[in-house]
Amino acid sequence: MMDAAPLLNVLIKYWLPFIAINVVIPALLAPLLDGIERRVRARIQCRRGPPILQTWYDLVKLFRKGAVTGGPIIFRLAPYIAFTVSILTLSLIPTLLNASLSFLGDTIVFMYLLAVPSVIISIGSIYTGSPLASVGSCREVSLWMAYELVFALSVATLAIDRSSLLLRNILPPYPPLHPSTILAIAIIAFLTYAEGGRLPYEIPEAEPELAGGIVLEYGGAELGLVKYALLVKRITLSTLLIDLILPRTWLTSILRSKMWFLGIGQVVVSATYISLLVILSITYSAIEALYGRLRLDQALSVLKKSVIIAGVAVLAALMGY
Amino acid sequence: MQHSWVTNGCRELVDLLSRYGSVEEVGNAYLVKVRAEDLPEVANELQWGLGGYYSTSVGADFRPIDGTYKLYHIFSVPQCSRYVVTQASLPPSLPKAPSITPVIPGANWGEREVRDMVGIEFEGHPEPKRLVLPHNWPEGIHPLRKDFPYDRKLIIEGVDDEVEHVDELARKYQVVPIGPYHPALHEPEYFELYVDGEVVVEARYKGFMVHRGIEKVAESRMTLNQVPFIAERICGICGFTHSCCYCQAVESALRIEVPERAKYVRTILLEIERIHSHLLWMGVALHVLGFDTGFMAYWRIREPVMRLAEELTGNRKTYGANVVGGVRWDIREDHVEKALRILRRVREECVALTEKVLKIKEVVSRMKGVGYLSREDARRICVVGPTARASGLDIDVRRDHPYAAYGELDFRVPVRDEGDVLARFLVRYEEVLESVSIVEQALQNLPKTPLINEDYEVVPLRIGVGATEAPRGEDVHLVVTGLGNKVYRWRPRAPSYNNIPATLYMLKGAYLADAPIIIASIDPCFSCTDHCLVIDVRSGSSRFVSFRELVRGGYRG
Amino acid sequence: MILFTLLIIITIVLLTIPSLASIPMRGRGANYLIHTSASIASASALILSLLILTYGTSLSIYVKVPILNLRVLTFRITPLSAFFTLVISLVALASSIYGAGYVRRFYGREYLGHYALNYGLFILVMILTVSSWNLIAFLIFWELMTLTSQYLVSFEKGKASAVWAGFKYFCVTKLGADALIVSVVMLAIATKGFTATFTDLLKFMNALITTNPLVGNLVLAMFMIGLMIKAAIVPFHNWLPDAHPEAPSNVSALLSGCMIKVPIYFMILTLNPLPPTWRFVWGYVVATLGTVTLVVGTLYALEQTDSKRLLAYHSIGQVGYIVMALGASLVLPYLGIKYVALAIVAYVASLYHLLNHAVFKSLLFLTAGSVIYRTGSRDLNKLGGLGKFMPVTAATALIASLSIAGVPPFNGFVSKWLIYVSTMCVKTPLAIFGALALFISAVTTTSFIKYFTTLFGREGRVVKVVTEEVPLPMCFSQIWLATLCVALGVLPLLALYTILPTATYLGMNTYYLVISPFIVSIRGYGVNAIALIATYIAVTTLSATIALASRGGRLTAWLCGSKLATHLYSIPGKGYYRIFENVFKEVYVAGQALKSFGMRYSRYSLKVFKELSDSLETAELMTAIVVVLATLAILLKLLKWW
User: Fold this and answer.
1) What is the pLDDT of residues B358-384, one digit of tens each?
2) B232, B355: one domain
3) What is the number of structural domains in chain B?
4) Residues with Cβ within 8 Å of residue C280, at least 6 apart in sequence
5) The whole model's pTM is what?
6) I need a surface site. Which of B90, B344, C546, C605 has the fewest CB within 10 A?
7) Residue-range definition of the domain harbouring residue B89
8) Which chain B residues are closer than 8 Å to C560 by Cβ?
9) What is the pLDDT of residues B515-546, one digit of tens each?
């Protein structure tokens, strides 16, 4: 368990490059990943598909428009809060650089901040009184509750195993690698897929059922922000999975010792990270193309079964496996 | 498949009808003039006693002709291959008739529309509310009466009062609107769902928001041979069926013999329309379930069929091929070869794709057991088409009242009895395969005759019933020919008219998430049902809106 | 010294004299008299407790019988009891100022003089209970606490549900809590004599546990169960969802915020000095019961459609958090050398959450009371749309909802974060408890999304009210508590400042906790940057709002020319999470089993009392008589006349 204080000092000194590289670049990448997903899905459906920058074009178009509904204040403020919090969440986890805003219990803070965008948008949507939006919001938070249970148990598994709640300590390398850790990472892989709002779990925003559900009432720039916040949430989740698999620190140190150029380790790791992001996007998109949408009760039943698996993982970790 | 009694009529039926009034044979229908008081009894006999099926009700203003209102009820009696049209004459001073809805619940909408449009009152109707006209339309003005000019613009003050709600329900449950703009629905209608959490407790329907007044226009300013083209524009993907149905009605009324080749061409184009309509529906159903890959795949399979239609008729849809007495376009030799090749490919791909789709658990679990309609309810509401066949009712106009070339072709009518969305999906799938087989038979046996029979005389005030099996079910047109090469009364009844009330039964107890697929499972064609005129209230101008624009969900306004 | 005496006298005098004086007054007089004096008294109690905590000393006060020079009642204000007094007085201050506006709705309907009597005495008695050191004093004031609070619960004599709730509460506590506690205390007194104090009680129990483990644990269990009934731990909780909603809202705040915390004071006092093995075992028992409570309480709260009942169930849940953290703090020192630091963290978490819960739960009850004041309704299926009429209430309700949900930067997050940090990385079942606590935090969030949006958002379904904001005193209290929520979240120093002296008093090692203004730092572990995050969020949100300010008008829903009854589109409270409740019904089945166990017990106690007394007043009278007789008996024994 290292003392985080010196790291924080370093961070404060280099905060501008840190934010620029670790936060801004992934945020800019998020719509590109979505573009890749759309393209892959189109090819699977025997279509040509939109260009990869299409999501960016859509967002820019939305940002240039005015909102149509001037709703209650909470409703109008929600996209901004959601967006800023989702960007903030990116700084808590190592993305391109191995650095992140690290402090005791930051895993918990990470989980809370990850939840804030969807929760605040749900509050805003129900507040408007639109029936389809409120049904969508209720679905969103019901699903989120189930996700949190599974997520909490998986994080507990990892934390027990490493005896720490510091995100840095939970990430690889894992000497020794326990079966409970593998199980927890598998569960988190499922969660990062589902929480990103991908079929068959694209339930709150179900367009044929709810006309957009939770994002229905938004239009114009606010809709753009909401979509962007959800895209950043997706990339954060993918980053979490990648970070749990990719042994960054080990790789960086190995490369640093083997090669004379000091920075090459970090550059290689960053490149690996980006390529893993792309590979993950392609995989997720391929999986998504194979599924239709589940109903809320069906999705919750699946999550109930995952709770049992997560419980097994925790018990295994407690027993030392 | 020939029924031995196709051209024989039915002695028992005629005897039954003779008890109530004089019976006249009009083409494939019996016209029986009954007294208004006997209507419920006749309806009961025909529907429940004889096992027939109620189709629709039509009201007509005959005051300029003989000073009465006429009320028609159309029944289909499959075992006799005949339609029965009961005609009741009502005095203009008291245009009242007993309602047959207590006997046949499916007559609910038909009678309400007659009341709105012609002004005939129905005694004993359980739901005597406005169907087509808005709530604040002034009383006593009925658009289909002959003294209401088609180009009259009514100034209506104020806004429509509040949509009615079932009060006790509304107090307890949340109201979730599906429509009038909703991505699940391709046309504007309004389903009002009362939900408890996510379970639908009750559903109400309000439609006819884009009523176009096609019947009035056709009766007022169109000639007999112009109507097929406006009939085709009632709907985008079942247009040809409507124009065939109208032409058949006129041909039945004027006793026109349609040449054999024209019948075969009509059959081929009808079945091509059915194929692409069903494939479209299967894609849309999967889209509503969220399975977009399946949606894209079905539409990819469908695309060659659209191109085939374009090759054959010049249009992907809205073929414009029908005239009274025959067809305008011929099918050439090289077309036959190409069509057979395309259809073979469609059949193979459709079979392969559907088998794969049915193996996906998530998709099937969203369709199985969802939107159940029992056989009894289906019979009572008088649903038609694949919706009826999926609930165990063995009815198909092509087999029961053979028209065009169906009498000479061999095909199977798929019937299932599960009554859920999956059953409807499978019925339509099997129908696609049957349609491919029908087209292949027809293409290989095209007789060499002329295409149009223009040797007929337009006799005014002759009544005719045309019926076809549209992709969505039985399509019935009633035509009364008018003076001077015009139509006196034309009532196109699209199949969705009978099917939409069934959704309200199916929605009860269903999950909200299943509401779109349930509504979609009857393959609703709301533009058929509504028939749409758009009036730009700001500029006062008006124009027709095409189906494609409605699908796009807006107009450049 | 003089300051202390002055403050004590002010508190006691201002809570007794006006209470007694307002008995003959019906309405306005009673209202203003009691609430002003209660406010001043709470303020002075607040200052007193802060002073005690600053100096870290203990104050002992004796009440002597003059002639015999005998200490009949002993009070000791230790840092721990000062902390609880702080909690009580914070809530009492808000509640009293709020009450000045709120009880106006009872003008002409109820007899406010009785309310005033019980209100003043209730606050006083709570403070005196936590301060009592003499077991006799403890008994007397514990009984009085039940008595006064029960009267307040059934204050609205016209409502049958209120009367019944009060009666049920009375019976359950009398037959359960009081019986058990009184019996244990009597045992102690029997051994040591009438001047027995808590030290004697604790020595007695420790001795018993070491010499005769079975009997000792039994006695301890009796005492604990008695306390748990009063603190509404599952499965002894089912009096609370009936009792708290029926009381006037400011009293509900006091009940939820203070009264159910009083037993926790005694739990801390009793469990800490236990011998190590038993401390470990009881720590686990308490932590397990706490987890069960927080899971069951909150999941039941999810399906409520009555605003105050929902809050009452959440009180049960949050007390579960407090108790679980307490249990963890008892267990952790024995789990390994690296977890010793976490023990103090868990303890701090427990008390921090206690303070936080008092603040945000009373704020929530006050907002619910504001809604009742203006609309007269508690039904979440019917209310809605109050946000635009009552902006202050809505804003404070939002802050309170976010606080209880544990969203940074509000206070709930800090205490919950401390709980997770202390439990989740430990290789014991405590980690599962921590994970469940995290899950329940999510459930709390969704439940409060429902609470907040059904009251203030959408459009009212049936209750169509065009109203205005509540009167100034009520606003003031709400804003005061909301500011506390934010302050305690952004400046944990404020809370730690009050909690750490209690830890030192109990003999815990506070070396590992470092105090700085904005952060809670655990030596050797790292830093918690709450305020950093809060500033970031605020700054970026503001700049984003300004940069992307969008224009646009307001549209209403449309249906092709018809008007829409848009109020019917609002989702009623019961429709929110129906599917979640159906899918996870196993939890509710289990909770039902526990509830029926508790219900059988309360029904039994109700039956017993029904036979003894048929009306409520008689029951009260009876208790009063019993208390008086008991006091008399004790006095006589002291004077050796009997």
Assistant:
1) 998 888 998 999 999 999 999 999 999
2) yes
3) 2
4) C330, C331, C334
5) 0.86
6) C546
7) 1-163
8) 180, 188, 190, 209
9) 888 988 888 877 666 543 333 334 444 444 45
